[in-house]
């Protein structure tokens, strides 16, 4: 057994440690926090059972039920109970990437079955009789269709967008009628989807928007009656394109590629309008904003390859920068500190100068309501510059005093930063390890969302009696009278769609006779799914499961990296660091410390869940506007935010101590907290200095990526011509900042781990042959310490 003795540290506090401690234990580790690991395993098993129950009992079709243009759920609401499928007047308008955000801009109606034949009014109007044409019409409502008496009425209804001009044989997909192409359909593709003068087999779309009304009329289908029938029942002797893949596969593939390409062009135009509207707020609403938006979008589309290359170069530069930090961290840090001080001096001079100028130059405030006018008013106010000069002056004095007082500890922080660079460079695989965590995290998100959707679909649907809105947004005033079992139905109250459809009607008087017709402007519409109490608890369980699992994945990744860097520090000769250090750390964490990871993540998950509950209560109590309640909730939200921040800090250090000593979570947290409290000033200094250095490093790499991209675009107009070089440069700057943040997140973990190892090293060892220091020679030089070792035991570089 390892001898354990009771000593006093330099602060006079008891310090327990193993006299023979030489670094992280490898062979004599044991599993930690096993009960919490079992609890986590049981929790995951319960979550799996809930997922199985949700998938077997739930029905996503209830959440994916289509809605027509009158806001009626197909197959669920009154009036469309027997019409479960949704038909689109012009499917071509729905093949657009922004449809999930804006909706499909074409009339949509519920139908019993999707059309099993093709209909093209412009081609068939002279080929078929009125009865055949009328039977094939698909209109907004049966009333619209019933009013049509002649072919002229059909023409007028189509022009008024009350009936579909054309449709192709369709099949239901998620209860939505989508085109179903037959074997010989490529020979009969409508001409408005083909480029004039070319073979139909080439499937080249027109460069313009072929779905507009004008082009649709100008380029009607050149189809005969036989061709239309061939779409439904392809002829046996129809010719096929002599290619290796099946004609139907090739047809669908080429058509989809062409249509999507065209729609992307249309999306560029819509996106340009969106950007133009945003720019107009800063352009005082001038008409030039729309042109500027179009140019910005065009630059983004044309420069995507340059942006990708710049991001890749940023990734490589980050790796090189981390490797160079072992030699350049000191000059960079000191240069950054003095640069900040000089910049603050310049800021003091400038703000004082502006204060004096605007004090002697009175101006009339601008009364415009746009952002530009408000900014000018602020900048022309002398008090603004007075407050800024005071703030900048205080910052200068505070930073200068901190640098003077903490200069020695800043040198320690620089040395530890160098050590962190050496550790990351020695185990370069740690830089890419976060990819593993991202994959697990994305899988957790997908699983939780899927289970939540299935759970949300379990229950009984509830319906409400509502009145539809007109195109202008006004509520309709239809006199819908309910009798019999529906006599108590009122607008806004609950109802049953079957009872409503049978018992509610509108009375009309014609030729001295009263007729009852179904209500069309008032419906019994689907409202929501009422989940049983156990399902609500299952949803709560699912939310907590996602929180626990996400914190577990983050903690596992952190402990693996901490174990890797701790092993690097406690290797006496750094050149003897074992191969596959990251793999060994991964296996060590997975075999011994999953319970500790589960314990720490459980604490954070509970606190985060409390915060979510408080946010939910806050939203619910907003309408009451009670000052006392708002104050209490504000204090509680602030307290739990601070508690979560502190627990995150405590957990990170507990994981590091567990990686070093192999103790359970509580012991590791207590040891790390006591160690930090004994070295509180060093901790604060290192934390702030390293954070500042990492921020400057990210700023330097991001600025370098932006400047390089702008310089390349400005000096190589032959390669790519843009309206504004600043557009792709801005995208590169944003992407570069995210890339560097990921890299320096690993770097920060290395420094935090090495810092705790450094504090342990200082308290446990004295430089004797029995207890030599494991820190670098530079750190020993700063602290005035050295190892008294025989020549054969001295550390190799």
From TrEMBL:
GO molecular function, one term: transmembrane transporter activity
Keywords, ordered alphabetically: Glycoprotein, Membrane, Transmembrane, Transmembrane helix
Gene Ontology cellular component list: plasma membrane
Transmembrane segments: 34-55, 304-324, 331-352, 385-406, 427-455, 546-570, 591-610, 630-647, 692-713, 733-759
Top-level taxon of the source organism: Eukaryota
Keyword Secreted attached: no
Membrane topology recorded in Swiss-Prot or TrEMBL: Multi-pass membrane protein
Subcellular location: Cell membrane; Membrane
Protein family: Belongs to the CTL (choline transporter-like) family.
Purpose of the protein: Choline transporter.
Protein's name in the database: Choline transporter-like protein
Organism, scientific name: Drosophila suzukii (Spotted-wing drosophila fruit fly)
Phylogenetic classification of the source organism: Eukaryota, Metazoa, Ecdysozoa, Arthropoda, Hexapoda
